[in-house]
Specification:
- The structure holds two protein chains of two kinds.
- Helix content of chain A is 34%, strand content 26%.
- Chain A has five helices and five strands, in the order E-H-E-H-E-E-H-H-E-H.
- In chain A, helix 1 links the parallel strand 1 and strand 2.
- In chain A, helix 1 packs across helix 5.
- Chain A is globular.
- By secondary structure, chain B is α+β, with helices and mostly antiparallel strands.
- Chain B is built from 14 helices and 13 strands.
- Chain B has a three-stranded antiparallel sheet with strand order 1-2-3, covered by helices on one side.
- In chain B, a hairpin with a 2-residue loop joins strand 4 and strand 5.
- The chains are: A alpha/beta, B alpha+beta.
- Chains A and B meet through helix 2 and helix 4 of A and helix 4, helix 5 and helix 6 of B.
Chain lengths: 137, 432
């Protein structure tokens, strides 16, 4: 079974959270670790061929410090007014689903941030790492 | 509808365009009384940010004006610097810049065709639903878009805000292995982009014939991506340094983006204008396929813009293969340029049209002033002119929802990059 944990982010402040979570994961042979910089639609290429993918990303507006979304939930929040300047994770997932290229098991671990301007929160990173490891069990 | 009735139609947010814009339309009787394409993106002050900066920072800063066409901004900028400063770029750099630009055209056109334009012509609200009916076509489009990004990343280090370009050339020369890997993919993309053009030709496109002025750069001996002369189908032949003598930008009260006029008239830049003017410069296999498919240029139908993008995408794929096949590693991927005071001009063919830069430099090579005229602001006046004609022809008695949808399709023909178009406001400030 091919599995991957994918940190989605950018070089700006707390938007690096997904990358930091991936960095802190223990290295194992059976789980690939990827860090993607603003992948847009290329997220679909990156996760193609895996049986299980856990995406990790900073999120705003959540009422929980950690938010776990399955594939169906991700698609519900995808915007259909796609602009090629602003294709987010949810939109890429929705398009991937329409094209039949998504892994059988797909989860998003969303780590709440207030804004990109803040620094990465160490305690939150650790919580996210614990949650990712649970999902990989 | 009675002759005395006034119908206001507001499209508060245009969908499937880059950035934020709106259309305000007042119809009185059988005529359009008022039409305003409102751009309300906040001004971004890039031209002010550049003042005092050195040319080492210039490519990185201008790349951030646009996430879809960073190569265009970088190329217009570095060519401007090199036109003034002392130095010379190597033939290798000239070739690689053309390859870099091929990547941008491929990714931008593929993205526009599949995400923004095609849903209109196939009865879908967006590409996600279109993918349910046309999965192979959408996959092909995304694969081509990915190829474009990989070409940009080959020379730029990454496709979003690439960092590889610099004055004098590139920071890094790709290895033979990197080139060969991409060459294999590019060769496969020839058939895919031919199939794309066949698919586009089969679309049922509206036929709305209009008079407009096509304007593009001219590049000696080839289909233009970079050039020193601006040409039009009215016989204009203007060095880019004289842009301001014939082209004027005007602020309108309802938009944060300038409107540009040529001798006081709206004009068109972009793929349709380029193909209209330079069809004969397309590579022989591209012209051969156009002839086989009955694709004719010049065209006066703005809806043929999607075909023009398909043609240019195919052209860029062919050029990519040629340039990668000819690739040799250089001794140096960039050459030194010595600063010089003066005014510099650079213009290249962004996916959406001419992107014109003007910089004033001091003797230390720092930017004293900058002016950047993006293609979308040049098309603003033409878009409004088009809307008046196209909507009137469509029928102002049509339901409001139909007029809204058609108006948006008309605007999408221009692939407006509204986020780039808000490039400058005349800032006057008093301190009390």
């Amino acid at each position: 079974m091919r599995r991957a944990v994918v940190g989605v982010g950018s070089p700006f402040g707390a938007d690096q959270t997904g990358w930091k979570v991936v960095e802190r994961l223990p290295s194992t042979e059976d789980v690939e670790r990827l860090s993607l910089d603003r992948p847009g639609l290329s997220l679909m290429d990156a996760i193609k061929g895996f049986d299980q993918v856990i995406l990790v990303d900073a999120v705003q507006g959540s009422d929980q410090p950690l938010m776990i979304l399955g594939r169906d939930q991700l698609m519900k929040i995808a915007s259909t007014s796609l602009s090629s300047h602003a294709v987010g994770v949810a939109e890429a997932i929705a398009l991937g689903s329409a094209l039949g290229v998504l892994p059988e098991r797909l989860d998003l671990v969303g780590v709440r941030i207030e804004s990109e301007q803040e620094n990465v929160d160490d305690a939150q990173i650790d919580q996210a790492v614990t949650k990712v490891l649970e999902l990989l069990q | 509808m009675s002759d005395n009735k006034t119908i206001p139609i507001n499209v508060p947010v245009l969908s499937r365009v880059e950035g934020e814009g709106a259309l305000d339309l007042v119809i009185r009787g059988q005529q359009i009384e008022s039409l305003k394409l409102r751009i309300y993106e906040p001004p971004r002050y890039f031209e002010k940010f550049l003042e005092g900066r050195g040319v080492d920072q210039l490519p990185e800063m201008v790349a951030r004006i646009c996430g879809i066409c960073p190569v265009a901004y970088q190329m217009s900028a570095v060519r401007a610097v090199e036109s003034l400063f002392e130095g010379e770029v190597s033939p290798w750099v000239e070739q690689m810049r053309r390859l870099f630009y091929c990547g941008e055209w491929i990714q931008s056109h593929a993205l526009h065709i599949h995400l923004l334009a095609a849903p209109d012509f196939l009865g879908h609200e967006h590409v996600i639903s279109m993918a349910g009916e046309f999965p192979d076509e959408v996959r092909r489009g995304l694969q081509l878009q990915g190829l474009g990004n990989r070409i940009i990343a080959l020379l730029g280090g990454r496709s979003v805000h690439p960092v590889g370009a610099r004055v004098g050339g590139f920071h890094y020369a790709p290895t033979r292995q990197e080139v060969d890997t991409l060459l294999e993919e590019a060769r496969g993309a020839v058939a895919e982009s031919e199939a794309l053009l066949r698919w586009l030709v089969a679309l049922e496109l509206p036929d709305v014939q209009q008079d407009f002025i096509s304007v593009a750069l001219e590049e000696s001996g080839c289909y233009p991506m970079m050039g020193e002369v601006i040409v039009s189908d009215q016989g204009m032949h203007l060095p880019i340094s004289q842009f301001e003598r014939r082209f004027e930008e005007r602020q309108v009260s309802y938009s944060t983006a300038f409107h540009a006029l040529l001798d006081g008239n709206p004009y068109l830049v972009g793929p349709l204008a380029r193909v209209n003017l330079h069809y004969d410069q397309l590579l022989p296999p591209v012209r051969a396929l156009c002839e086989e498919l009955g694709v004719h240029f010049p065209s006066r139908n703005m809806f043929d813009s999607v075909l023009a993008r398909g043609v240019e995408l195919l052209q860029a794929v062919h050029e990519t293969v040629m340039l990668l096949e000819q690739y040799r590693q250089p001794e140096h991927p960039w050459s030194e340029f010595t600063p010089k005071a003066g005014v510099a001009f650079g213009a290249t063919c962004a996916p959406r049209g001419i992107l014109w830069h003007r910089y004033q430099f001091n003797a230390a090579g720092k930017i004293v002033s900058a002016r950047i005229v993006p293609p979308t602001s040049q098309n603003q006046a033409r878009m409004e002119e088009d809307l008046r004609i196209a909507l009137t022809e469509f029928g102002l008695e049509q339901p409001e929802s139909a007029i809204k949808q058609y108006g948006e399709q008309v605007i999408r023909n221009y692939d407006p990059c509204i986020s780039c178009a808000t490039h400058f406001l005349d800032l006057r400030m008093k301190r009390r």
